[in-house]
Design brief:
By secondary structure, the chain is an alpha+beta fold. The protein has 2 domains: about 10-160, Aminopeptidase, CATH 3.40.630; about 170-340, Aminopeptidase (3-Layer(aba) Sandwich), CATH 3.40.630. Helices cover about 30% and strands about 25% of the residues. The chain has 10 helices and 14 strands. The strands form 2 sheets. The protein has a 12-stranded mixed β-sheet with strand order 1-2-3-4-5-14-6-13-12-11-10-7, with helices on both faces. A hairpin with a 4-residue loop joins strand 10 and strand 11 (about 260-265). It is globular and about 65 Å long. The two termini are about 25 Å apart. The structure holds coenzyme A. Coenzyme A binds near residues 2 and 8.
Length: about 350
């Protein structure tokens, strides 16, 4: 659902309960459930323009969803008279088809607060449940990530029988001098900067996830990048190689911690997405963030979207080393992953 969600202000999330909405127009049940089609591009562009400060990935994402229907089930609810898209959500299959990943839930601003997201989410979850009951299909679990303050998203997860299974620190930062200075000055004196790190070869990155450091930092189970979580158990090489081949992902290490980063251009911003695994070592985390800020700048990114392991949330936030720029978010918010097992793991 929230693979797209780079940044959202809580105010962008639906706040009006259904009961408060004017009773004009068709009812939720009248909207037609159908696959997303090329005629929906315009409505999606309208939604993206007002979502996540214009950094929404919807416009580019729907092209992938429509092109690869073997992997993606992109559904929408369309107005019964005009056929215009009012709400959209995609189910994609990852982890060799074992995970149904729910993403991109959006309701057009004209139609919010009427229960459309709720209905569409139920319909898409039902698709996944039916698929998991087919012994010929590998699907065994449903997952998505969202911000921990996205109450609608969490409400829909609960209604779909999903619960929070993991969480990370999350921050969005414009790339400017202020950020570099803050990172430098927040590190403990003598702890060493990004010069201690190097870009890992594929062999080193795989060895990290499969070896004892991966266990300590939890990358032996899965890695998170750009709002998606990928199972690494038993398949670290394929996962990391796949990331590098399809997204140019780079991996950094050399100090016991581990990080990965990749570029993603959106309609108005090019962001560098980073995930840092540093257990409780805030200095290592700051070193890795600084390393990626340099990669972001080299690659023409204008913002950094950062995930970091939960143990560091307090340490890096405003009450700790105060690394993150408070004018973007007042605190350091959390991202969470919700999950529902659909079929017992053999
Ligand atoms: C989030 C979004 C999809 C909601 O769309 P919507 O069609 O207005 O949502 P609905 O009317 O179906 O409401 C969804 C559920 O959240 C509940 N809800 C609404 N506002 C709420 C709030 N502030 N707190 C808690 N629950 C809330 C609704 O009551 C409903 O639950 P119910 O069916 O059990 O009653 C829409 O606001 C949007 O596109 N936002 C921007 C993108 C985004 O945040 N997407 C989701 C995460 S990626």
């Amino acid at each position: 659902m929230a693979a797209a969600a780079q940044v959202s202000n809580a105010s962008e999330v639906a706040t009006s309960p259904k009961a408060a909405v004017a009773a004009d127009g068709p009812s939720t049940a009248d909207f037609v459930l159908r696959p997303v089609a090329p005629c929906d591009r315009e409505a999606c562009a309208e939604i993206a323009a007002v979502t996540y400060g214009g950094r929404d990935y919807l416009v580019t994402a729907i092209e992938t969803w429509m092109a690869d229907t073997a992997k993606n089930t992109a559904l929408c609810l369309a107005h019964p008279e005009t056929n215009r898209l009012a709400a959209i959500e995609n189910l994609t299959r990852i982890d060799d088809g074992e995970t149904g990943w729910v993403e991109g839930l959006r309701t057009h601003p004209d139609w919010r607060g009427r229960g459309l997201a709720s209905r569409l989410h139920k319909e898409l979850v039902a698709v996944a449940v039916a698929e998991s009951e087919d012994p010929a299909k590998p699907l065994r679990r449903l997952r998505y990530t969202t911000r921990a303050d996205n109450l609608v998203s969490l409400r829909l997860a609960e209604a779909a029988g999903m619960s929070v299974v993991d969480s990370w620190g999350f921050a969005f930062q414009p790339l400017d001098e202020r950020l570099c200075d803050k990172l430098d000055s927040a590190r403990s004196p003598g702890s060493g900067g990004p010069e201690l790190l190097h870009e890992l070869t594929m062999e080193e990155a795989v060895a990290h996830c499969e070896g004892p450091t991966g266990d300590r930092l939890s990358t032996s189970k899965f890695v998170t990048i750009d709002w998606k979580v990928l199972q690494t158990v038993g398949r670290a090489r394929r996962v990391l190689q796949g990331l590098r081949d399809s997204h140019g992902t780079v991996f950094a290490g050399g100090d016991g911690a581990f990080s990965l980063g990749q570029k993603r251009p959106d309609a108005t911003t090019t962001s560098w997405f980073v995930t840092v695994y540093a257990a409780e070592d805030a200095d290592a985390a700051l070193r890795h963030i600084a390393w990626h800020v340099a990669r972001a700048a080299e690659n023409g990114a204008t913002a950094v979207v950062l995930f970091y392991n939960e143990a560091l949330i307090r340490e890096l936030g405003p009450e700790g080393r105060g690394v993150f720029v408070a004018d973007v978010f007042s605190g350091a918010p959390k991202a969470v992953m919700v999950e529902r097992e659909l079929r017992a793991t053999e």
